[in-house]
Write a structure and sequence with these properties.
Layout (H helix, E strand, L loop, with lengths): L3 H6 L20 H10 L2 H5 L2 H15 L3 E3 L6 H5 L4 E4 L3 E4 L5 H5 L7 H18 L5 E7 L1 H10 L7 H9 L1 H25 L3 E6 L7 H22 L5 E5 L9 H5 L3 E3 L6 H7 L5 E6 L3 H4 L1 H14 L5 E5 L9 H12 L2
Parallel strand pairs: 1-4, 4-5, 5-6, 6-7, 7-8, 8-9
Antiparallel strand pairs: 2-3
The chain binds coproporphyrinogen III.
Length: 342
């Protein structure tokens, strides 16, 4: 019997949508916080295959989600290209910046990434043996634009101003950086698939700040390049694309990139996404993560609303973005029970 997530990704309309949750392994879970403490810090946890597999499995054991997502981070790939990466407690990621032609030229060759990233493939391989037979294993990477925003600014930023500035002032260097990330992402995801990932997802978390032709050139085009290269090597592995807050950019995104499924954030209504995106195939989403903090009847009503709106087409239930550290684990259970009772 094929796994439910893989069936939905093939376009099947299931009586109950399969369900998983972005950032399902994370700080809202006491067992995650305990394992992270044991590892020392977040990056040590990412690079420790046994502990990274353990935290990936925690939400599967607790909730029985239909998919597990590899525990890692989108910034490990740029780190493998050379720039130093660290996490400031309470502030988020910091990275050595890459903004000059020389810095782009001095990034390590793509073939070198596996040296740094082999523990990640080991985590995937442990997971593909340890997961229950009904659970799908999802690998992932950041999409080139989103990864570039961190490489250029050296940290997260609200409006991705530094990346937009480089794009405007030195288009060739910016494009060269996007191309390097694109090429490395193909190798990284291909290695995850070889290690046992059954689906891969591209997180373009900052796609929403690319407008008009920029969205086509720097969200859509690199995504399409990566998907075409992956499909040539792994024709049966589905790809989920998440151009977060793309708005009208969601329309036709699957068609133009070759994605098997488009993940929808919660800035658009499920009805809009049904009419404009699900007409092209499977969609994933899009309950507001805030409900995992607040719970109650608002949560159950919004959950039913999402399930019902997407019920006439292929759908994977998820949040519209990652669950936050202040979420209540009981509310996650309530969401799952609500979906599965429909
Ligand atoms: O979804 C999962 O459970 C899989 C693991 C995963 C993490 N990060 C673990 C993580 C995934 C898929 C990511 C993706 C990621 N990482 C994105 C794209 C998705 C999104 O949320 O938009 C981005 C932009 C990053 C970069 C990143 N990593 C930031 C900005 C931060 C700090 C913000 C924060 O929440 O503290 C991280 C750290 C991070 N990545 C944590 C986790 C569980 C928290 C680290 C900790 O334990 O302190």
């Amino acid at each position: 019997m094929t796994k439910t997530i893989l069936r939905a990704l093939k376009g099947e309309v299931l009586p109950t949508p399969p369900i998983w949750m972005m950032r399902q392994a994370g700080r809202y879970l006491p067992e995650y916080r305990a394992t992270r403490e044991k590892a020392g810090d977040f990056l040590k946890l990412c690079y420790n295959p046994d502990l990274a597999a353990e935290v990936t499995l925690q939400p599967i054991r607790r909730y029985g989600f239909d998919a597990a997502i590899l525990f890692a981070d989108i910034l490990l790939l740029p780190q493998a290209l050379g720039p130093k990466l660290w996490f400031e407690t309470g502030e988020g990621p910091r990275m050595e910046t890459t903004t000059t032609p020389a810095q782009v030229a001095n990034l390590k060759p793509t073939s070198d990434i596996h040296h740094t990233l082999s523990p990640i493939y080991e985590t995937v391989s442990i997971l593909s043996r340890a997961l229950p037979p009904e659970t799908t294993l999802i690998g992932f990477a950041g999409a080139p634009w989103t990864v570039a925003t961190y490489m250029i600014a050296g940290k997260g930023s609200k409006d991705q101003a530094a990346a937009h500035a480089l794009k405007a002032s030195d288009r060739a260097t910016f494009q060269a950086l996007i191309d390097r990330i694109t090429e490395a992402t193909v190798e990284y995801l291909s290695a995850q698939i070889k290690a046992g990932a059954e689906v891969v997802k591209l997180f373009d978390s900052w796609a929403g700040s690319l407008k008009g032709q920029d969205f086509r050139d720097f969200s859509e085009a690199p995504t399409a390049t990566i998907i075409a290269a992956l499909k040539a090597r792994h024709p049966t592995t589905p790809v989920i694309a998440f151009p977060r807050e793309a708005g009208a950019g969601y329309i036709g995104f699957a068609h133009r990139t070759g994605a098997d499924c488009v993940a929808i954030d919660n800035s658009v209504s499920p009805e809009w996404a049904t009419a404009n995106v699900q007409i092209d195939g499977c969609v994933q989403g899009n309950l507001a993560p805030q409900h995992m903090v607040t719970g109650g009847q608002a949560l159950t009503a919004a959950t039913r609303h999402v399930v019902k709106a997407f019920s006439n087409g292929p759908h994977i239930f998820n949040l519209g973005h990652g669950i936050t550290p202040d979420a209540n684990p009981d509310h996650v259970q309530l969401m799952i029970d609500t979906v599965r009772a429909m």
